[in-house]
Amino acid sequence: MSLLEEELRKPTKPAFVGATAAAGRSESEDALADVKVVEFGAYAAGPCISKHLANFGARVIHVESRQRPDGFRLQYPPFKDGKVGLNRSGCFAFFNDSKRGVTLDLKNTEGLRLAHRLVEWSDIVIENMRPGVMARLGLDYESLRVRQSDLIMLSTSNMGQTGPHAPHPGFGSQLSSLSGFTHLIGEPDGPPYFLYGPYIDFVAVAFGGITVLAALDHRRRTGEGSYIDLSQFETGVQFIASAAIDYAANGVVANRDGNRDAAAVPHGCYPCTHDEWCVISCWDDQEWERLCHAAEQTRWLSDNRFANAVSRKEHESELNQLIADWTREQGAEHLMWRLQCRGVHAAKVNTVRDLFTDPQIAFRNIWQEQQHPELGNHAYRMVSYELSETPGSVRRAAPCLGADNEEVFVDWLGLSRREYEMLSEQGAFS
Amino acid sequence: MLLAPYHVLDLTGPLGFLTGKIFGDLGADVIKVEPPGGDPSRRQAPFLKNGNGCRQSLYWLACNANKRGVTLNLENDKGRELFYRLATESDFIIESFPPGACAGLGAAYNELSRQNPGLILVSISPFGQEGPYKHLQGSDLEIMALSGAMSLAGEKDGEPMRVSVPQAPMWVGAEAAMGALTALAYRSTTGLGQQVDVSAQVAVMSALAHAPAFWDLNHVNPERAGVFVTGRSVLGAKMRVMWRCKDGWINFIIYGGTAGRHTNQQLITWMDEKGLAPDWLKEIDCNTFAVTNITQGEVDRLEAPIADFFAAVTKDEFLEGAIKRQMLGYPVATVADINRNPQLQARNFWQDVADGWSGKTLKYPGGFAVVNGQRLQIRRAAPCVGEHNEEVYLKELGLSRKEMAELQSQHVI
């Protein structure tokens, strides 16, 4: 490691103190203490919103039923040790940490009555059922607001609650194509690629979280509730807004362009040793020169084909070939530091496994372990933002199916133990 | 409008533009602060083509709507003094300077917090304000690489791929707004602001969905699989996602269980109507069909006739059929397809906004949510350089015309 590299890697103390610390308060509280959320949702788009709230102290109840558990519990791997089981799904666990889990049979009169009591207990209801389902249960906003005018409710769905396609069922893995993302990934003359999972669901998670929190602030100031109709499709288009305007204004249909960029050249992904990859980008002629020196390839500097950005763009594939021939002999991480120390944009392509050893991710304490009854001690993901005075954290492992029925209905909602047992016999928690 | 009472000072570069735009969409008053002469990213391709030969960055336009714009030189004393006055009136400051590059801002925040204890500082950076990568340079490409997202897209043995329209600034911009509003919730009960430190690397990790769980639980490292998806069958079968159709591509995955039952029935019926469903396909019991234990051989056999069927339909026909039959699956849309999508039109998604600079009317994607029946509005296009200098400095801060002229001649504004 060079001296410069050592200097670059050195951790430092926080620069900002913040008002709370300045005011002399030491122990940290939760930003969302006293915020109560109930979610009638499954898969990712609904549940992942409340996970973000729960990480900052909100009390969140995830409602399922025994007849129809959250689809993530059984429908997709990974399962711990490959054995399928209601409480063995990594997919479910990943989006449901820090919450309580209850089961209610909403087709049972008593179960539905308890669902109403959960709503009355809550500040925020989040649901991602197919449009129309909540209304059939009498749990739609219009019905609920009659008794609870300050209720905040978010409905998140593929297409929104209105319009001719509203009832269309769907998963984010496909919706990520309808909203333009997959068309924009791959080589121009090759197929579009899949973005691994339901990419757009998490776009909608951010916009859903934002709107719910804005509505919470509005309610604290005015006492008014809000109903939020979030179309995941529409949130996806926000992430390609510049291309959407480009088409409307210029008639340009944006196409996938490999790893190339309109402004920077080189701008690509290159092979390294051990089947690893790195990316390099140069944003002006000076950075390109720094790359040539760092790579000890001064003949690139004297090559007319690469004299300026325009000519480099013209000869981009030849340039990429030369760079790849050079990187092939280098370790990706070594290369990243070597180029970064010399002022060149470069990074290793982390694989998923690498994320568990990446020093920056470790520094931010992103993987936080919790003990789960069937999954054992395992990692949950903290979110991308840290709050200096009210830090977030993973509070508890994801709930097993119905694990918190008693705590929620007896301790939080105040049913007597006798009532609870009676309702249980009547099938309310099935 | 949900955030109408709030004032936001937006000092960001391209990595952080979206956060202020989101605040603007929700009704906050957002002032975008640029250096005199305009933000350098205004001159970044691709451009809005304009009749008079001038060029304007589309990304700048898209992500700075719903903001007012002032110029201010933060690098000299007079400029900083003016910044203090603006900040004293603000609820949020959003910045995306390289961590440590603007040490003065940290000191300024600490001092401002004494006068304005509710002030929330939102700091956006590629990797975070502290830590081993804090000084690394990260454009979209480097962030996408270090987040793990690229490793999951592209051919199995080929080059990892990024999305051609930069996504890291979108992820971090949106999640920073979520962080800022979490801090606002704390402020609303205590009156106290704080710093929100947002990492683009971690924000993009949201896009990996549950991929990390494979490594965490079973030490399986998920990999890119081209036009296929893996990880749906515990036996490791890969299933096709991207299918060629008459005029492009369709995204369709064979699901099993309750998720796939209806779609599979409908697809077989649709294929049969066109005479493209072999008898063995029609005999499959969709009620019990599952993919969690499916083998590669079974997948390949199923996919062959489906590929023939898709090759004979257009993107529009597929969308229409999938909607009518309530099937899972969508076409791989281009921005042109999105532009004329009937559902977006029916929900009045698009919004015409007059752009003062080009003189054009621009069709913007509308606000991201419908709140109490009202779509969030794009109330103004992105500002011209210094468009609101007079409004902000003269009318709101109360500078005199003489003072403003001086500041202008000293290149402060």
Q: Could you report the average pLDDT of chain B, rounded to the nearest whole number?
A: 93
Strand arrangement, major sheet of chain A: 3-2-1-4-5-6
| Portion in strands of chain B | 15-25%
CATH architecture of the largest domain in chain B: 3-Layer(aba) Sandwich
Radius of gyration of chain A: 26 Å
What is the total number of structural domains of chain B?
A: 2
* Class computed from helices, strands and strand pairing of chain A: alpha/beta
Beta-strand content estimate of chain A: 5-15%
Largest sheet of chain A, in brief, is:
6 strands, parallel
- Quaternary state reads heterodimer
Number of helices of chain A: 19
The radius of gyration of chain B is: 26 Å
Number of E-state strands of chain A = 12
Unreliable parts of chain A:
11-26
| CATH uppermost class of the largest domain in chain B | Alpha Beta
Mean pLDDT of chain A: 93
Question: Fraction of residues of chain A in helices?
Answer: 25-40%
The name of the CATH architecture of the largest domain in chain A is: 3-Layer(aba) Sandwich
Shape of chain A: elongated
